[in-house]
Amino acid sequence: MSLLGTIVSKILHPFGGGEAKADTPATETAGAGGAAGAPSGTGTIPTAEGGKVDVEAVLNDMASKAGQTLNWRTSIVDLMKLLGLDSSLSARKELAQELHYSGDTNDSATMNVWLHKQVIKKLEENGGKVPDDLKD
């Protein structure tokens, strides 16, 4: 599964089902038990008006249970950590390649900002309702 597909699945489809719309292969999803970092509980996912998954509610719920302070709203590293993913520079470079980043991957600060914006955009494109302040 692609790294982007894993991110989308863990947020929008943590209990199974759904495919990411991206320039990447279709995603696989976690089984009924959910994935690491998936919302716990009855298997329901917070939704917003129109039936879209409320990305902010899902991620805030995960963050409240993380055991550490993770700023998913601005940091791609913290977002990946929150989802239980490898957030190393090499993993972020892999995500950048997958998302067709054309900048210098050695300028990690610029790349990280771009990656975060792209991931939020892809979550919205795949049926997530993202907070207005995170949209471009």
UniProtKB/TrEMBL annotation:
InterPro entries named in the record: DUF3597
Domain DUF3597 positions: 4-131
Residue ranges of coiled coil: none
Stretches with biased composition (Low complexity): 37-48
UniProt region (Disordered), positions on chain: 19-49
Species name: Methylobacterium oryzihabitans
Protein name: DUF3597 domain-containing protein
SUPFAM superfamilies per UniProt: RPA2825-like (SSF158634)
